[in-house]
Amino acid sequence: MRARPASPTPAPSRSYHRGFTLIELVITIAVGSVVVAFMAMFIVMPMNAYSAQTRRATLVDAADSSLRFMGRDLRSALPNSVRVATSGSVSALELLATVDGARYQDGGPLSNPALELDFTAADGAFSTTVPFTQLTLPWSSSSAYLVIYNVGVPGANAYEMANVITPAGTTISVAAGSSANQNLVTLNPAFKFAYGSPGKRVYLLSGPVSYLCDTAAGTLTRYSGYTIASAQPTSAATLNGAGAASALVAAGVSSCLFTYSSGTAQRNALATLSLGFTNSGETVQLLHEVQVVNVP
Predict the structure, then answer these.
(1) How far apart are CA 255 and CA 149, in angstroms?
(2) Measuring CA to CA, how many Å separate 267 from each of 9, 151, 198, 292, 294?
(3) Close Cβ partners of 245 (under 8 Å, ≥ 6 residues apart)
(4) 268 and 140 in a common domain
(5) Domain boundary residue among 205, 224, 251?
(6) CA 245 to CA 235: how far, in whole Å?
(7) What are the helix (H) ranges across 91-214?
(8) Which tens digits make up the pLDDT trace of 6-46?
């Protein structure tokens, strides 16, 4: 019996694993970087432009809102009461804010001469020929003021708290009269107005209002409810000491300029307001002009 030949020993198997060479890897990285750079250019640049546009729009809106807010106060200012000043980094604008206005009666009927406003002595009661329109009658206040013929000169300046404006603490009451155009006004204590208005105008004031624009702090702040003084306040400390209530109007203010051209005491004046705002390298500056009626 023949022996079976032995099976041949199988040859060892070989496996081949092929990877990236260093040159291929470097080329891939370089090409990928170029692609990413182009993608960034088409994506990041529009995003940056959109962000910049958004910042500019926000700054414009802040400047426009602030200027319109100031313009609203200026248009309600007592004739010849607007004044501006600068102290260091602070630009200040002050005015006396009116609540309402009417025309007083300067000649009473024979049946009731007490309706006439007397300019020769202290008078505690008079009537109007054109009524107050913004008051809900009957109305009374000891924090408001009545002003007649403020022309902003010594002796006829409401900031002096004499002659043309009732003293602080005077109780002013307004009631309906016997006709649609008549209001009955009483003052306690009585007060003597020094001058009559050619147009028979009498103004009801809520008090002074100040705007302080501080470029060092980057803020625009409104102050109200403080004591009227002959010297214009130009600092927050002075206003706070006078009992002012403050409200921040805007932040991010980089520049401001307030000018006032009074013209004459019988014509319109012009207030020019310039505000600049800055944020993340974006800067906008807006200019606003407001006509102020100065007929006393």
Answers:
(1) 36
(2) 121, 11, 14, 9, 5
(3) 223, 224, 225, 226
(4) no
(5) 205
(6) 13
(7) none
(8) 556 555 555 555 666 777 777 778 777 777 776 766 666 66
